[in-house]
TrEMBL record:
Region listing for Disordered, in residue ranges: 113-140
UniProt keyword terms in alphabetical order: Membrane, Transmembrane, Transmembrane helix
Protein name in the entry: Uncharacterized protein
Transmembrane intervals: 25-46, 67-92
Length: 140
């Protein structure tokens, strides 16, 4: 190949124009930069979608599962209302209603004298009613 310039070309070419058969370093640099930016933005996007789930980890298990499902639905459907609902649900700390009720039930068992012997005690079915006998009169 001839390394001389084309007669119509100017004497000083820009640095990004390469000779025929040479590596285009600007194109290679832009491809690497674009791939890196896609990975960085994608990583940020997935971390942002997982934010409500990470916030709900300090809460209760059921609340965390609901928030995780809402975040997953918003990720696949691109409906941001699910993500906002999951974020709000992760921020709200629901009061614990079951612990006081269990405590009240245990106190009432102690007061009635029917304390349990173990936590894994089987639930006893109520006694069956006695068969009625017809003693109040003669039947046919």
């Amino acid at each position: 190949m001839d390394d001389t310039l084309h007669p119509a070309a100017i004497e000083h070419l820009p640095v990004f124009i390469t000779a025929p058969g040479q590596t285009d370093w600007l194109f290679s640099g832009v491809v690497v930069f674009l791939l890196a930016m896609i990975l960085i933005v994608g990583n940020f996007y997935f971390r942002l979608h997982a934010l409500p789930e990470q916030m709900a980890h300090r809460g209760k298990k059921v609340q965390m599962e609901i928030v995780a499902v809402l975040a997953l639905i918003s990720l696949f459907t691109h409906n941001h209302i699910f993500w906002i609902a999951g974020l709000l649900l992760a921020l709200i700390d629901f009061p614990d209603f079951s612990s006081p009720m269990v405590s009240i039930a245990q106190s009432l068992e102690k007061l009635s004298g029917r304390a349990r012997t173990g936590e894994d005690e089987a639930i006893v079915s109520p006694p069956e009613p006695e068969p009625k006998s017809d003693t109040a009169g003669g039947g046919i």
